[in-house]
Amino acid sequence: QAFFCLLLCVPWGSSCPPSCQCTERAGAKAVLCSARHLEEIPKDIPRDAVFLKLDANSITRIPSNAFRHLSHLEELDLSRNAIEKIDRAAFKGVAAGLRTLDLSSNRIRSIPKEALLALNAKLRLANNPWHCECALQEVLWEVRLDPDSVQDITCHTAPREEYVGKPLLQVLDAGVNFCSVRQRTTDVAMFITMFGWFTMVIVYVICYVRHNREDTCRHVDYLRSLPNTQSHTE
Asked: Is residue 230 part of a domain?
């Protein structure tokens, strides 16, 4: 009876996913799920996990609240996966405690700034097919990048061909500001729209005046065609 009671009293958070290996590292729990052909993040990761390795799998997305129950998590390795999408609340609940977050060598083209706002972790973003634009530039302003991997954040695509293949920070250091480019593009679009509306108003006014002039001419011609009342009186 004591044995069964002990089993029932053990918290579910201390179990280990069948596809992973759970060990102790310097008195802290490490959950090792590297190269296990995982296509999504396991849902039964122990709540007391401090180190979590999910690298070298086939994970394609980090959904909202994926790690919310892991309040002790300090190191998270998601490198060498096939991650393409990261939800805005992907790291909700663990952002404040994380010390390192590795998202390198995935398929990430863009990442919502909201997903990283509360992070204090040192972040690795290298070797992803980044689309260099204002959104990515704003992300880099907000996060702590691992200095050893900064030069490997390169522009896979960009608004201008000359930036493709270059490290993003090199492009920014050269004075490029993707956010100002977007602002100029918005301003041009607004100018074109306003010019279009102005042109339509002018055309409408011209057509209206011309139509009224034609009506007036027709009315005058009609009056001229009427018999002269004065000649009949004589």
From this structure: no
